[in-house]
């Protein structure tokens, strides 16, 4: 009897454990993306600051993300600071524009341009910095973030070309303070849990650690997420930002007149290092806190929709979620941007109109939103089955050619906005997937792209950076940014053990 009981216990321990482990849910984690805008190419002491911060983090077993300005990389090379370059290479290298604050900055030169010209101009002005970072550091930058608040939507087109994550902070575009996708690019921008400890004020350290602790508690309760923390290596050694000294309020002096910023005393610099060290030590004390880089974050939030084959059942569910308010969709752990929904459902109708059956459809990429002017629709219009089918075929060809939604969908001689067309498209696609024909008469009603609310309107506060000239505004550019709200969708954290 004792032998039988012992055998059963051994079987239970050996046989049940793998199954139990398989059913274990991964414990949530707090992922800290610690990043440094490495930009000051005037004050030599900032080179030493970057070196010391990078070496400290390496000894702590932390890989941070250093977003390097192109001219900062060239300056390090020119000063023969190969020790700094080597120390930064122990971490992940990102990109932070070519000259940072030399006028005009990205938002300024992109503010009068459309999408394609703006992307090309961004690549023209900033591409040399990317090339030099590749040459000097021997790696491709993994991410980009704008100088100051000089954000422009066209930079996402360049990020897509360069295979970069967008990592920065601001309020130009955001989705409920969580990681998201915008213009097909993984976007860590206006996050709820964005913070730092003031390295000049030791009396505020307890307040900073308390804020981190509160965020950690919230994030764990939500099943895991990201804390974004930013610094500039030059902060350890200067009393005023290098660019504010030279380029404030639109100033653009020649290089011969550039001035170095005032520098901290040795004691002030040592205090800054101590505060930062204590802040890092506090975060490291938690077993559920993990420091990650920008590219690691992108892998954790990898897009499940890209490359997926959608079945007829799944496409029917997608069609069923389309209404008057055009929004992103969530299906389990997968999300779809409005433009992705548009492309999939339009293909269903285009296939039917071309006498093709739809068994599955693969989503290869995220179409852009319209880059041209979007027509308006105040009252419903009616079309017939033949015209609707021919329009679907034409729109499918437009998507294939241009990689974006049209600003006007033509029902013969009648133009309707893409959101109204999608509202009418969804029930037609659902009917076709159920084996029904295209209805003889189809009503196209007005609709609204609700994801526009996640993109800011042009506002003086958006352009509050000291480098902008007084009165700078960019209404046309922010309108273009709103049209790219067609591409917005949440990024979903993948379960990890």
What does this structure look like?
By secondary structure, this protein is an alpha/beta fold. The chain has two domains: 30-301, Glycoside hydrolase/deacetylase (TIM Barrel, Alpha-Beta Barrel); 309-451, no CATH class. Helices cover 42% and strands 15% of the residues. It contains 16 helices and 21 strands. Strands 1, 2, 3, 8, 9 and 10 form a six-stranded parallel beta sheet that branches. It has a five-stranded mixed beta sheet with strand order 4-5-7-6-21. Strands 11-15 form a two-stranded antiparallel ribbon. Helix 7 links the parallel strand 4 (143-144) and strand 5 (165-167). Helix 3 runs parallel beside helix 6, helix 13 (338-353) packs across helix 14 and helix 13 crosses helix 15 (418-433). The longest helix is centred in the N-terminal third of the chain and has 23 residues, at 115-137. The chain is globular, with a radius of gyration of 26 Å. The two termini are 40 Å apart.
